[in-house]
Amino acid sequence: xxxxxxxxxxxxxxxxxxxxxxxxxxxVVTAGAVLRAIDRTKYDVLPIGITKDGRWAxxxxxPERMAIADRALPNVTDLTESGHGGVVLSVDPANREVVxxxxxSVPKALGEVDVVFPMxxxxxxxxxTLQGLLELSGVPYVGAGVLASAxxxxxxxxxxxxxxxxxxxxxxxxxxxxxxxxxPDGDGGVAARKKxxxxxxxxxxxxxxxxARGGSSMGITKVDDLSGLDExxxxxxxxxxxxxxxxxxxxxxxxxxxxxxxDGPRASVPAEIPPVTDHDFYDFEAKYIDSxxxxxxxxxxxxxxxxxxxxxxxxxxxxxxxxxxxxxFFLTEDGEFVINEINTMPGFTPISMxxxxxxxxxxxxxxxxxxxxxxxxxxSTGLR
Length: 384
Prior knowledge:
About 30% of the residues lie in helices and about 20% in strands. By secondary structure, it is of the alpha+beta class. Strands 12, 13, 14, 15 and 16 form a five-stranded antiparallel β-sheet that branches.
């Protein structure tokens, strides 16, 4: 063998996190956990943070600075190496090189990227927008494609797709921006209130008012009667001009993970989210600040476990997901499962349910991360 022969370079993984959505901080925490888990002997890693105003920045590879500390949430800006420089990904499929630009300086090439691990949650990252950019760039990426990401982010169309595939969903109503009277043809929200009152008359109070395209339980309010409705709608609209109103489903909260294997998607053991005593529901504080713990595996029996696993994979297939999904269900008092939603890029924080369910299913955290990267590397961009 020639002395000049070089061994093949390691695949380069760009971990992209942060973003413009209200889930910015949770994305940072998630990315920190993934950065810790990536096998550096197997992959080169390039951390790229997106600030709250949308700037792509080169960040420190410092997972220890990306955790929630003393209830304080991390921010991409605190991790950036420059307050002005930006990272640019080429949209030429023949050129996967990442370039760093600084005002007044010559652009600096950072090398090619083989795969992107998009650890963004919510709009402008998990909703198909980033996936569309990566498709244009010809760069493989972890997780769902453009359509599945968009459907998985919009709870209205997610439920419509589930219904069309015969999956059970709970009662809901959609309030669009013009119905709340903030446009010239609006009526001050009279029609929207009437619609919600009629919905409550049929399904009862309390109701849950939530952003249609949000996550991490942000912007959700439990409304016990009409007096709290306007405030709840305005809170949801701070996150999304389109909102969803759902009836209370009485039952147990069950989650199940789906992961892509060589022979197709498989479901993990399910988890149960027990009732939280200090919160009205499993909200943001309960999930990420107060560390509400789920029960893994869920004590629901073999028959119910098999059924929720079947439904989780069916939801994954219905939305044409790739890579991974966390499917959330209610197990009602009459023993039936109702699917609440799916999450195409579930949290990977140290207390997140998705990695915990797979850990209990025999897939360790590092193996989980590796499987997702390998699946993305073997998947082409474009129509497939």
